[in-house]
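Check this:
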Amino acid sequence: MQEKEVRLLFKAGVFESCQAIPISMSRGWTLKFVTRDQEIITLNLQRSNTEREFKSLDGAAAVAKRIGFDWLNVQIGELQWREKVS
């Protein structure tokens, strides 16, 4: 789903949380959004249906903030934590 569609769903109160998950150790991060029904929605590129990749966690957090999230859940394997996006 594209960023503008995710932003509209966020304003409608559809999402429970936003997660940043590494793609691989060298490729970067992706954002996934968890709805209240526990459905996972992935952020896609604007011009294709491929998953949007971020080179840094800061870049992913900036987009999560732009969408409207105050908190970002970060998950690397079994390690999980919650970051306040600013």
